């Protein structure tokens, strides 16, 4: 229980500090600490991260740190891509989705350790290309239940010419949109497979995560962003190895055969 709740707090801190990483952590917490089935965890992750991102974006928006043009051209195609990804997930087993998740996580760990410096004043990327970026991130979101902030933030900084803090605020809005779209699609997947979400888990994680996100926002300007990204990238690399090990190595499955999808299962 304690580790699961700490995980919820860390999910929010990650989103508030970096504008990314929340759903990268949420799926493993729900699968390995609360023992939820993969497809339930993926759908629940979208609900949790979408809620946290929505409330976390509010203080950024109040300070003018959301680039609404990028939200329009990146976020809306992302919602379309998320719907497509959720549809594609119907033909994938939960086991396959977790393997894809682990592979994406490995790539994320590499991206997070690379230097992403502020480059304000650059000529913005063509909006058609930005829309394609958003579509691709959306598909990934729909398939494996991640918000895609780890791709959105570097894209907005390196390709869109936004400062880091503005990219973080913009990323949170896009994540909220993508998560809402993906969650709607995954509800249909769960209905087809007679799976149900645990509303208590979603509510508790969203509340704790939102608190963590607001705390992350308040301290983000005081901490070296590059150092944070590298530490976070190292953590993701460890999680990626664990996920791939438990789903690719025979006999290494870490979850019990009878999953429990409530907080009681973490006690």
Quickly describe the structure.
By secondary structure, this protein is mostly helical. The protein contains 10 helices and no strands. It has helices at residues 2-18, 22-33, 38-62, 68-88, 94-113, 127-144, 149-159, 164-192, 199-220, 225-248.
Question: Please, could you describe this protein's structure?
Answer:
The chain has 267 residues and is mostly helical. It is built from 10 helices and no strands. It has helices at 2-18, 22-33, 38-62, 68-88, 94-113, 127-144, 149-159, 164-192, 199-220, 225-248. α4 packs parallel to α8. The longest helix has 29 residues, at 164-192. Mean pLDDT is 80; it is low at 256-261.
Task: Write the topology of this structure.
Elements: H1 2-18, H2 22-33, H3 38-62, H4 68-88, H5 94-113, H6 127-144, H7 149-159, H8 164-192, H9 199-220, H10 225-248
Helix pairs in contact: 1-2, 1-3, 1-9, 2-3, 3-8, 3-9, 4-6, 4-8, 5-10, 6-7, 7-8
Shape: globular
Give the termini distance in whole angstroms: 5 Å
What proportion strand? under 5%
Number of helices: 10
Helix content: over 70%
Mean pLDDT across residues: 80
Rg calculated over all Cα atoms: 17 Å
Largest sheet, described in full?
A: none
- Structural class call reads mainly alpha
Low-pLDDT residue spans: 256-261
Q: Give the beta-strand count.
A: 0
Q: N-to-C SSE series?
A: HHHHHHHHHH
């Amino acid at each position: 229980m304690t580790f699961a709740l700490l995980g919820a707090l860390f999910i929010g801190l990650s989103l508030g500090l970096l504008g990314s990483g929340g759903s990268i952590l949420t799926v493993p917490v729900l699968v390995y600490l609360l023992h939820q089935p993969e497809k339930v965890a993926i759908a629940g992750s979208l609900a949790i991260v979408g809620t946290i991102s929505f409330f976390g974006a509010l203080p950024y928006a109040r300070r003018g740190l959301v680039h609404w043009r990028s939200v329009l051209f990146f976020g809306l195609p992302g919602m379309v891509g998320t719907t497509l990804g959720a549809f594609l997930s119907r033909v994938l087993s939960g086991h396959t989705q977790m393997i894809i998740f682990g592979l994406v996580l490995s790539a994320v760990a590499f991206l997070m350790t690379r230097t992403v410096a502020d480059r304000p004043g650059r000529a913005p990327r063509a909006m058609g290309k930005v829309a394609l970026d958003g579509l691709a991130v959306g598909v990934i979101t729909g398939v494996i239940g991640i918000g895609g902030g780890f791709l959105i933030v570097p894209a907005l900084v390196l390709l869109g010419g936004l400062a880091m803090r503005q990219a973080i605020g913009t990323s949170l809005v896009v994540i909220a949109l993508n998560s809402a779209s993906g969650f709607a699609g995954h509800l249909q997947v769960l209905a087809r497979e007679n799976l149900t979400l645990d509303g208590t888990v979603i509510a508790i994680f969203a509340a704790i995560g939102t608190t963590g996100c607001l705390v992350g926002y308040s301290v983000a300007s005081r901490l070296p962003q590059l150092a944070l990204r590298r530490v976070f990238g190292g953590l993701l690399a460890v999680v990626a190895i664990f996920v791939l090990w438990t789903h690719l190595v025979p006999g290494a499955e870490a979850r019990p055969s009878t999953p429990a999808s409530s907080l009681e299962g973490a006690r």
